[in-house]
Amino acid sequence: MKIGVYPGSFDPFTVGHLDVLKSAAKLFDVVYVAVLNNSAKSPIFTVEDRVSMIDRVIESEGLSNARSGSFSGLLVTYAEQVGAQYIIRGLRAITDFEYEFQIDAVNRHLEPEIRTVYFMANPAHSFLSSSNVREIGELGGSIEGLVPSCNYQYLRERLARQE
Ligand code: ADP
């Protein structure tokens, strides 16, 4: 079985993330969408909240081979725990590439058997990030079309209440 882990902050999960997840779900037998539990990043949504939003996306998109999860230690340790041979990441711009290049080197040092595969962002989403979504929502702009529709109403209300 080919198993992949798609890790990220997903604070919150966007349509750009969904695009990567749908592509990965076609290629792998099972895809774990794993929320990184990293308080250093000061996320605005709790891990539980982010996992619930991902669960709603998996269900409403009918992605029957996708699973949600979270991890706080090393990504390669989590990947081994779920039996994944691959890490999945998305690439938007050259800045993502530099960062991913470094992370890949670290992960390969830690666990050479686990390889990372990359999906280029859909050009329509190449400027979309979770931080854009948070900023637009907090400033009262429309986030419709930027987040999966199953989470739109919830995120609209939550972000509008954010300081
Ligand atoms: P991280 O903090 O690990 O970068 P993110 O939630 O920001 O977590 O992103 C998770 C993964 O999804 C990363 O590989 C990132 O490059 C990718 N990604 C983020 N936004 C998009 C997008 N609009 N299109 C394609 N991939 C994306």
Task: Give an overview in words.
44% of the residues lie in helices and 19% in strands. Strands 3-2-1-4-5 form a five-stranded parallel sheet, with helices on both faces. α1 (15-27) links the parallel β1 and β2. α5 (130-138) packs across α6 (149-160). With 163 residues, it is an alpha/beta fold. It is globular, with a radius of gyration of 15 Å. The protein binds adenosine-5'-diphosphate.
Pick out the low-confidence regions: none
Order of neighbouring strands in the sheet with most strands: 3-2-1-4-5
Counting helices, strands and paired strands, the structural category is: alpha/beta
Work out the radius of gyration. Answer: 15 Å
Describe the biggest sheet? Answer: 5 strands, parallel
What value does the average pLDDT take?
A: 95
Helix-strand topology string: EHEHEHEHEHH
Distance between the termini: 45 Å
